[in-house]
Amino acid sequence: MTTKRLDYLPALVLFARIVQYGSLSGAAKHSGLSRSAVSKQLSALEEKLGVRLLQRSTRNVRLTEAGKQIHSEACRVLEAFESVETLSDEMQGEVNGYLKVSCSTGIGRVHLVPLIKQFNALYPKVHVHLMLEDRFVDLIDEQIDVAIRVGHLPNSSLIALRLGEMAWAVCASPGYLAKNGTPKQPKDLLQHNCLCYRNGQSSFDNWLFNSNAGEERIAIKGALSVNDSTALVQAAEDDQGIVWVDKNSLGDALEQGRLVQILQDYALGVGYPIYALYPARRHMPIKTRVFVDFLAEHFAPRMRYK
């Protein structure tokens, strides 16, 4: 390999990191460079290759068609560099770096944010970037180190660690029930304002109940639907209606009486499993390994309802 070709390598790594962190500023921060230095290296790489790799704006960057092709190869170079860094960190016993974590909003706010405070106390040199959003995230394309996923997993090359499972409950506030009455059977919900979780991909507006009499499905209606389960719980606590929710996402709302559970004579089905997912790599970064180990030890105890 000629010296001229070797000159490409640092710029390719930097290009991959710009995409990984979503901006020139992000790549600069985590590469120990100024933003202007990152911009100059990117421009020099584009000039050498004779193509534009990124469409830049003041807030973010977007890959061009040529950039998408070269990015896949740049990621291989980045992975090789990171493998060397991982081996070096392991030899030195040092845990540091930038850790990108994806999680749904409800689980993230109730469980993950408090745990990350504990994690940072143990590993202060690890910067955790937590992405809270209820959408499917491609770990490889979006350079996610660890994702917390809910539901049954399709076959993939990702490694999965089971952390727990959801436990369903139908709840309302004492204030709402005092004003509107307490449903005694599922069909009574048709006379109530039911709060619905809805995002761009799905709508949870059919509630399924099981009893000795069989299965009963209720198409609930209400004045509010939300794409954030935490906001849905807050609305229920504010006397706005009845909610179907994972009890583990309620915090201390049941213990403190802000919400009460109703229709407890009916089975609501098995809750969805919760997993930590991370890409399979020849050399797993030590920051990823300690974070996954930390979740295995500290996340499961928070799943107190089964």
From TrEMBL:
Q: Which SUPFAM superfamilies match?
A: Periplasmic binding protein-like II (SSF53850), Winged helix' DNA-binding domain (SSF46785)
Q: Which UniProt keywords apply?
A: DNA-binding, Transcription, Transcription regulation
Q: Which residues form a coiled coil?
A: none
Under the heading InterPro entries, the entry gives:
LysR-type_TF_proteobact-type, LysR_HTH_N, LysR_subst-bd, WH-like_DNA-bd_sf, WH_DNA-bd_sf
Report the domain of life of the source organism.
Answer: Bacteria
Annotated ranges, domain HTH lysR-type: 7-64
> Per the similarity annotation, which family is this?
Belongs to the LysR transcriptional regulatory family.
Q: What is this protein called?
A: LysR family transcriptional regulator
Question: From what organism does this protein derive?
Answer: Catenovulum sediminis
